[in-house]
């Protein structure tokens, strides 16, 4: 049994929901899994205590949360010694045309952090109109109309979810199999140094 950390940053909560679903798949497959919001991590978080680490972020204004970028950058040496994955939640990933843009966000993240995860997942996000203030709601409606005009779901004035849960579960199962394979061959050393931002 592997001990896996799923650490994430979220805006309106969809990335947290994705992280919880990934963790549920890991648990079903026999892994001991912890999920953690980046803003709630303890100051003494020790990545070396985990056999594998998944990092998740959402996209807002074309970027991931700065806390996740800093975390990946400052811990890349430890992350490079274990099986890792990165998942990103965005409206761009909700459409076939937008996936290329979503992939660009990941490339920029890798360039900023110099961390190269073993697996990458791109998932559609959600429009949480009920959690937006007046100006953000107007802005998000305009963005959605411009980028997702062919989606009938947008005709509703309520919250809309674009996450493909089968895709999330398939990603989690693939990562779990990769972790099992890697750890069967080698186990992480326990004397790395790590830092946190």
Key terms for this structure?
197 residues, alpha/beta, Rossmann fold, 40% helix, globular
Describe the protein.
It is a single chain. This protein is an alpha/beta fold and 197 residues long. It folds into two domains: 3-125 and 162-185, Rossmann fold (3-Layer(aba) Sandwich); 127-160, no CATH class. It has helices at residues 14-28, 66-74, 76-79, 99-113, 134-147, 165-185, and strands spanning 3-8, 32-37, 52-58, 84-90, 119-124, 126-127, 160-161. A five-stranded parallel β-sheet has the order 2-1-3-4-5, with helices on both faces. Strands 6-7 form a two-stranded antiparallel sheet. Strand 4, helix 4 (99-113) and strand 5 (119-124) form a beta-alpha-beta unit. 36% of the residues are buried.
């Amino acid at each position: 049994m592997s001990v896996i950390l799923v650490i994430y940053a979220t805006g309106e909560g969809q990335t947290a929901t994705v992280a919880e679903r990934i963790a549920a798949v890991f648990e079903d497959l026999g892994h001991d899994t912890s999920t953690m919001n980046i803003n709630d991590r303890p100051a003494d978080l020790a990545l070396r205590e985990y056999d594998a680490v998944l990092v998740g972020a959402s996209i807002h204004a074309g970027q991931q949360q700065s806390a996740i970028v800093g975390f990946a950058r400052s811990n890349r040496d430890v992350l490079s010694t274990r099986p890792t994955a990165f998942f990103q939640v965005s409206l761009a990933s909700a459409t076939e045309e937008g996936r290329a843009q979503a992939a660009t966000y990941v490339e920029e993240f890798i360039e900023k952090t110099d961390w190269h995860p073993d697996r990458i997942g791109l998932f559609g996000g959600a429009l949480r109109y009920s959690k937006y203030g007046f100006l953000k709601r107007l802005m998000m409606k305009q963005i959605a109309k411009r980028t997702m005009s062919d989606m009938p779901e947008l005709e509703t004035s309520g919250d809309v979810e674009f996450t493909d849960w089968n895709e999330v579960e398939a990603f989690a199962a693939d990562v779990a199999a990769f972790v099992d394979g890697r750890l069967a061959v080698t186990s992480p050393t326990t004397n790395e140094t790590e830092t946190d931002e």
